[in-house]
Specification:
The structure is a homodimer.
Chain A (H helix, E strand, L loop, with lengths): L34 H7 L5 E2 L12 H19 L9 H12 L10 E4 L1 H13 L5 E6 L3 H9 L3 E8 L2 E2 L1 H13 L6 E4 L13 H14 L2 E5 L23 E6 L11 E4 L2 H15 L4 H13 L2 H26 L5 E2 L7 E5 L6 H10 L2 E2 L1 E2 L12 E5 L5 H25 L18
Parallel strand pairs in A: 1-12, 3-4, 3-6, 6-7, 7-8
Antiparallel strand pairs in A: 2-9, 4-5, 8-9, 10-11, 11-14, 13-14
Helix pairs in contact in A: 2-9, 4-5, 4-8, 6-7, 10-12
């Protein structure tokens, strides 16, 4: 929240002798205003409902360690060496098997392994987006994707969602309105399953409709699916890519089904797009880590990994239940929230007149943290809402956190009732903090 | 070498329905013409003097495996989790200790951990380079850096080298000539120690002069130093960054001193630049692998890693000797080459009239491969030379490879003597293959 991280004065600018030399795109790279606050929020006494970190406590670390010992001893000269820019062939085969669980038929040659799906986002943006190009994205949308689009100087236009995900009529209306101004969006970015941050999924009956609208408008669909296997009833939505292999680029990751610290994700893309993704990745990192890839590949081969995913699902369901139960028990009137059937997040809308960014310092003082809704919009809106994550803290901590949050909202409501609406600052044009807080 | 990878027809373009949608920058991303040939060259019967892969046979894999087992069992929930965008704090301290070996005084806060130093190159290019910006680079220059600069649509202007590295007078003349045309380069990219591909080092007496010229011209120096600890007599050059903390961005890596498969490199930058590098990295990959970083950090802490570097040096020296001895024994008159005192590479200049790209198919038929000199120039020149790597094959294989190459050169010389100069094709405008072949 300090001055030197505001949009007008990028961090360090007053002392930086290189200021005049930066590229145009660097001007859109600024630290989030909420970053400083999150440094405070990381103290142990604060319940963080802000982070998107998976809970790894359930991983069998001893047997993983033994697996790594053997892998290094027997295949170390491969694991520690440079690999191909596209990624390990065996792992790409296994990735196709993983995607088959969501109805996708794909060839390993069309898969590119990336440094988490964030790098896949970056590569797609890099090969498609010129400055001022338009990207359609859900309202709200994943903070890390918005940061990537901003880094390529693209303009994001948000499309409304409801409890069934992206609204097809809103997509049609947005496209028509843009077309009337001569604007043809390049991409439609969507998280169809257990959405980050809204916690909703795109209804089955909307999926073909959304694909059809995008295809007719000549807009490539970018399907980002980190949470697809984390549906609490164990069922899996059919991927958009399962219905359309030609106009969908699909992004996946092992960050939520195994471990984010290995940074292994992927893109599945039509052939010509895939070729360019590989060239862009080589220019960016030469090749993804052979070591990380072999760890994931060995893990998929040697362990009952789907059983592990099942135990993750059960753990997250217990935490989701704890959050929904305590929200229902303690939230003041006028507060609303989504009821996720998978994934990590609840999207909470505040009583009228309250602003989630103005509320945050009070919440942190009350020892609870969340991400203000503004982080998930490119246009500074979203102040009426916030994202609550239930993935990491224990159920007991979640209940404590929700109680503290309810107290902060109640206190802020009383203040607003006395003095009028809490000050909504200027729209927040700064890039949000990464989603790892 | 097939039609669909030429500059005019990027790979897959004729079948790619998305062709009209790509960004401007994507037009400069094309597969190397020599890529197809290297697929052939990777056959076991071919001696590859083309690759820049370090030789990992000397690593103690059993004890590394045991180290990894323990690390995973005891620190797995940290190693497998998301980490900071800037990189692990303890590792950044250790990186400062490594750089101190080259005379650098630095604070861990000014270090950014990256996915190999290639990502550091990418991030520096990303924050500094607008399309058409000019980068000064040695003639010849590292193929991966040229690929990165091309990906940001920068123009590379080469500056002459000799046996003592970059020539200060040539740098002055190039700057003057550019200034006369109103062109102010953004960066001077240099590999001062055991240069890739030339195998020479910047003489000590030139270092302050080069820094002074760059500083006066307002050009930021980008010092890329993968081979600094691989001097065969065990001595270490003082880094450029050791003399100038304000106008140098220093890039380092563990790829050559430990293992490239972990993809751990770094940038050391002035404070304002460092802040922007972190923001750019977060938009690109969120954070580097916590797992890879902890492996490197534990390795540096727990093993006599400088002893390991010493054994790498001795292994590479033996291979360098094998190459220089057999070059002296068998190369036809008119062939010249550099005599590296460290690193991986010899730069060989062919007898007059011969072209290294035209020669390559003949060499591969004779079961030896190299990288044509054109790969190391942004302007298609360099056909008179080639890079020979001695890092990976055994001394015996190196001698075999040099004998085969001498035979190919001899045969081509006879052809040229009979029919005139071998056909030099049009300047090679395609991006080179990554340096991991």
């Amino acid at each position: 929240m300090s001055q030197e991280t505001s949009a007008e004065q990028p961090a360090g600018s007053r002392l930086d002798p290189h200021l005049a030399r930066y590229a145009q795109r660097t001007r859109s790279m600024t630290a989030s205003e909420i970053r400083a606050l999150f440094a405070v929020a990381s103290r142990p006494e604060v319940v963080s409902l802000a982070g998107g970190m998976p809970n790894l406590a359930a991983l069998p670390l001893d047997s993983l360690g033994e697996m790594l010992r053997e892998m290094t001893a027997t295949r170390g000269t491969v694991a520690l060496q440079y690999g191909s820019g596209q990624g390990d062939e065996r792992l790409r085969e296994q990735i196709c098997e993983v995607m088959a669980l969501e109805g996708i038929t794909a060839h390993p040659d069309d898969v590119v392994v990336t440094v988490g799906s964030q790098q896949a986002l970056d590569l797609v943006a890099r090969i498609f987006l010129d400055p001022a190009d338009v990207v359609l994205a859900e309202a709200p949308s994943y903070v890390g994707a918005l940061g990537t689009f901003a880094a390529y100087q693209a303009r994001v236009v948000h499309v409304a969602m409801d409890a069934d995900g992206l609204v097809p009529d809103a997509l049609r209306a947005t496209l028509a309105s843009l077309a009337a101004r001569g604007v043809h969006p390049k991409l439609l970015y969507t998280v169809p399953n257990h959405h980050n941050p809204m916690g909703v999924s795109l209804a089955a009956e909307r999926r073909l409709e959304v694909l059809d609208i995008a295809d007719r408008a000549g807009v490539l669909v970018l399907e980002d699916n980190p949470y697809g296997l984390l549906g609490f009833d164990g069922s899996t939505h059919r991927a958009l890519r399962a219905e359309d292999a030609r106009n969908v680029v699909y992004l996946g990751t092992f960050s939520k089904t195994f471990a984010p610290g290995l940074r292994v994700g992927w893109a599945l893309a039509p052939h010509g797009v895939r070729e360019r993704l590989v060239l862009a990745s080589e220019a960016s990192i030469l090749c993804p880590s052979a070591f990380s890839q072999l760890v994931v590949s060995t893990y998929l081969d040697r362990t009952p990994w789907l059983e592990q995913v099942k135990s993750f699902r059960e753990m997250y369901r217990e935490r989701r239940d704890a959050m929904l139960e305590s929200l229902a028990a303690v939230m003041p009137p006028g507060t609303r929230w989504t009821r996720p059937e998978g994934g990590f997040y609840v999207w909470l809308t505040l009583p009228d007149g309250l602003d989630s960014k103005a509320l945050l310092p009070r919440a942190v003082s009350a020892r609870v943290a969340y991400v203000p809704g503004t982080a998930f919009y490119a246009d500074g809106t979203g102040g009426e809402a916030m994202r609550l994550s239930y993935c990491f803290p224990s159920p007991e901590r979640i209940r404590d956190g929700v109680h503290r949050l309810a107290g902060a909202i109640q206190a802020e409501t009383e203040l607003v009732d006395t003095f009028g609406a809490s000050g909504r600052g200027a729209p927040d044009a700064t890039a949000p903090a990464p989603d790892t807080v």
